[in-house]
Amino acid sequence: MIEGLLKHCTDMEIEKNFMDSHGQSEVAFAFCHLLGFNLMPRIKAIHSQKLYRPDPGMSEAYPNLQPVLTRPINWELIRQQYDQMIKYATALRLGTAETEAILKRFTRNNLKHPTYLALAELGKAIKTIFLCEYLNSEELRIEIHEGLNVVENWNSANSFIFYGKSGEISTNRIEDQELSVLSLHLLQNCMVYVNTLMIQQVLSEKKWYDMMTSEDFRALTPLIYNHVNPYGNFDLDMNVRIPIDTYSIAGQA
């Protein structure tokens, strides 16, 4: 997820990143915050989430939230490891180290790593703020849902295009993997380009253009593929016999 945020190969200035529950973690919340992104997950098991208290000595505060409140945030740990956290975040942003190599240090296998503990603590604070906003704002939940629908539609189109071998890259050779992904990108671009031209042609007719509402225009997307036959077209004329010499075939048999 973070690799895609940092190396998206476009001119976009990314502010938000939408994802499903499995794509988020406390460490991910921390790194996204340090890198200047807003992590916007759709939380599936929202009923099991916990909110961390901002400071000690607030055990009786927020009486209506007592069932979902847990311990206070350890701000001192974050202060102690702040420089280290910034160092790793800067290395990610500048690309001075591989993203995977850095993030491997901050998995559940390194629970005693002090910087990991600090990142998790910062992530707990950021996630608590997000959960409060997520529960309070219907507009935010709608925004996340709509953003994920775009991603899911794109993934669905990719699966449709990349149908060979069930859409899996079944080789460990880097060259073959790159060739498969580059071919997929080429097909993606071709499909989007052709679909865009087709949509423009339809909307160039006043009759169809006038039928469109603002909601219709908002929902327009070139990521459509129901009109595409990935296996090609096969024209079969039942009135014409296949030109096969049955006698010669029988003789050879």
TrEMBL record:
It holds the Pfam family DDE_Tnp_Tn3. It comes from the Bacteria. This is Tn3 transposase DDE domain-containing protein. One of its GO terms (molecular function) is transposase activity. GO terms for biological process: DNA transposition. Residues 1-234 form the Tn3 transposase DDE domain.
